[in-house]
Design goal:
homotetramer, 315 residues, alpha/beta, eight-stranded parallel beta sheet, two-stranded antiparallel ribbon, 10 strands, 44% helix
């Protein structure tokens, strides 16, 4: 039994009123129906999995569904709900705020509220909104607000509308989620967004989508295509250096080695993806992760210490 | 200087008449314009890169552009052209045939011609045609023909139409190509196509797209989503075992380790992706690949011996 | 700070009366003078180093000094002293008995007492007595007694007399100790002693002396010299498989990898060599050991679980 | 079949007149009797083993046997014989001169002759002469002569007289050889000899004896014993940095990793130890060595390039 020391940055909350609203709009999560969720079930899973504290976030579709006019109010209610968990179990929960992105004014306002009054640990942004991906200049007002606050941004995958055109029967979490996160990461790097808003710390879900696997290819892309900004491999790696990664559903030694090649400063934090990753899946992931050969300090860093350097208030 | 022993399974030909036809249809390659190509330039790059023999293939868009009625004739002409290279330089070139997939009857007929009369070493299929991906039952007649011939199928990425809806400025080769190959690989596995046509050997371009990076996630996907066929991780790995991989544009130790975790039998072959990967890019890739720590026999296997086990006639 | 879970199999006691007797005989330890020792200092070091329980043993010269007629009585007194520590701190100490080897009858008798009445966890034998090394048929009566009791034998280095002829100024612990253990290990393997007394579990100090470094050479020695029993490399490795190793003063990744190559079943246990390895040395060793990349379960096995499989009564 | 590119620094010659002299004195090699030797057999083994060029040396006992008054003349004759091989097969043989060490004046004189007139690539010294080991100040006149010539010294094990007192039946090459080399290496480091004669390059046979396995222990020895010169671990590692190593009879990945930890500059060269390692043994060693995972350039360095940096005239 692991000692309960882990800080989990990829842990979902599903407030009952939120679940109802999603179903009422004919939407739902990538796995079809929501799994059972309650704070007590959350704590039970955490105890079983050595998780001392979990930073909650809303999964896709966030508040981007149904009536746009209601998104800001729903976001506020969800964020207040998350704060209530933190108040009730202050040693067990933190929160990434959901942001209503249909109106950027509303987004900035909710960021102010969540990071200010509510003292959330950061915000959760989706990798894409519509067909636009993080890194698009359209989102700059939000990025400016986050940069000003030295915010931690947890980048969670979504499903862009055109992905529904694919003639494939597989649920989004199997592949498209990963592609979504990957596109956001690449767009943040090559659009220069990370350079313009250097104080934001982006934490990429699921070991960076798939980006670490082909980071070499990215690093020489300007050599392949003269139309790209002629960044050197070193330039590109310097930008990649700023990302953080959670290890949710990505527990193998090989995957971690790809991440560590581009995240030399130890930018890996623990993530479980509960409850979409159910208890059985998390137990398998932990077994695999614990079997990875690593120095004792490296394991303690992923389990806890790296998260504390992102969120010193949790210490 | 490497000794010229390598067999390159990912090497493109661009017949002059083909390039004209693509441009005339307003199409082009993922990097915009075709690079200079001639058999002599090909041989020069091969000599510089230790490549004894290259198996040529047509890159995307293959013959899927312009007037569908002309696709079969264009495919025939391209395949004959490739055979001409093999006749003229029998020690230096082999060929993967292009297949006209708009009409499956035409596809089967061209497969018969290319693998029969022309004695090509295999065929090149794109990962997707329209919004359908390899593994779709629609392609079964082609798979049946290939299975009957114990064919080697080189799976090369394409760009499905809906990917153009993405509001992103990056050329397809940077990411979408990799997602395309990945979807084909996953669809071949989970649709059961590989089980139904077990005699086909699929060689996935670019280290499998991105699939090896998240093979663990794939292996537990049925635990996450009860709607999926309830294959065990061992079942899924047993299917993955059948894939082969080229290492074009994927030379790092970490990427190779991900591949080898799911390809225990040594199913990795050398690929360069010339000329879309130009000489400078290939030199960088070779430098990185040669710096990977591996047993001498493992290197010789990737460079040459594994390809000979796929293509014994080349010995 | 490590949690205090380790079981230390290489931990010395220096009873005050014993130290006086050694000095009185003009003898002493390999480092010249005895370091300060008391049970309280021992417990302090254990607490600092995450050591829950230590198995004590007498270092060289054991009771092989001075008047042979007094050796048996001194051994008895030392073993009773060790038992007293175990009684007083039953959760913190276990014991390997010292054996008076000048008279094998006395040796067998003390083994009976220590493993029977005193319930010591095993015995400590020196790698050599005089110019004879463990494995010499001369010691067979002792081996027979140990085999009958399924004993654990901790093999600690000594200094054979002829090593004093070496015209070298370095203290024995720097090299000769390691050669001594190595000779015992090789002699146990090639003399067939381990085959004849298969129930003894031998724990080799200091990562096996140096034997794991040249195990390959040992495995092909019969190919080099026809006068040797013509064991195959597999035969020799099968014999090596039975050894256990402590990691005292041997904390690097490279050294451990050599051991694990020949001890596939996880036969490595934790050792500190206190107080000859003083607190500063042990802190350095722990730092190095903790930086070795290993699965979580492998570390827990070395720290504790492997020792419990040798000494189930400690659980 | 390996391409014949290797430079072998550990390759013995056994001139017929020398073998007779050894037998006549009642001496012999560590394996009892000399194996068959001739230049033609040597070339045959080299061709089978990918060895382009071998640097010959006399094994133990060198010329330290029989009548001391004849040692210098025998050394001269052996060195002239080695030169004759080099003249006859200039692309296949180089030579390390044997040095008559009973009279240091004779030793210096023969060094002058061999490195001057004969242009040998270096000299072979034994790790010990009598009970003295390299590093002993007694040998300083020889070291001074070698330092002045920037000589390469191949350190080959011998058997010091007191080792015959060991009550063990195993031939010297099984263990005592390795201890002998190890003592020389440690003595060279801790005596300060390497500091005083910094221009000599010492190549240690058999992967350094056993020294790389316990280099960590050496590095903290001054912390254990206050009587030692209080060198820091960094000081000691800086001295170890100067050694070179051959990989004769030491082909495993684990052994090589120990060496590379203390020889970061790539100071490993190829060695076979023929004919004491016979063809079957060398084939096994090559199989194991070739299975070690290493970058292509690292393998080429061990096989050839590192030797060329020691012996640029061979290029």
């Amino acid at each position: 039994m692991p000692s309960p020391c882990r800080i989990d940055v990829h842990f979902h909350l599903i407030p009952p009123f939120y679940q109802e609203a999603v179903y009422a709009a004919g939407a739902g999560p990538a796995i079809g129906r929501y799994p059972d969720w309650s704070p007590e079930r959350a704590l039970e899973l955490m105890d079983q999995s050595g998780i001392a504290l979990a930073l909650t976030s809303l999964a896709q579709p966030g508040v981007q569904f149904g009536d746009p006019a209601k998104a800001a109010a729903l976001a506020r209610r969800c964020n207040d709900y998350a704060s209530e968990l933190c108040r009730r179990w202050p040693k067990r929960f933190g929160a990434f705020a959901v942001v209503p992105m249909w109106e950027l004014r509303e987004a900035v306002s909710e960021i102010d509220h969540a990071l200010g009054a509510l003292k959330h640990q950061g915000v959760c942004l989706f990798a894409s909104y519509g067909e636009k991906f993080l890194g698009d200049a359209y989102f700059d007002p939000v990025m400016a607000a986050l940069n000003e606050r030295d915010a931690v941004v947890f980048v969670h995958p979504a499903l862009h509308p055109s992905s529904r055109k694919l003639d494939l029967p597989w649920p989004g979490f199997m592949m498209e989620y990963l592609f979504d996160t990957t596109r956001a990461a690449v767009n943040l790097v090559f659009s220069g967004t990370m350079e313009r808003f250097p104080r934001i710390r982006f934490v990429l879900a699921h070991a960076g989508g798939l980006m670490p696997y082909f980071a070499w290819r990215l690093s020489i892309s300007p050599m392949i295509d003269a139309r790209l900004e002629q960044l050197s491999p070193a330039d590109i790696h310097a930008r990649l250096d700023h990302f953080w990664y959670d290890n949710a559903l990505s527990p193998t030694a090989e995957t971690l080695a790809c991440v560590e090649r581009i995240a030399p400063g130890g930018h890996v934090v623990f993530g479980s993806d509960w409850p979409f990753a159910n208890g059985r899946v998390i137990a398998e992931a932990l077994k695999t992760y614990q079997a990875v050969a690593m120095p004792q300090a490296a394991r303690e860093a992923i389990d806890r210490a790296n998260a504390l350097s992102l969120f010193p208030r949790l210490a």
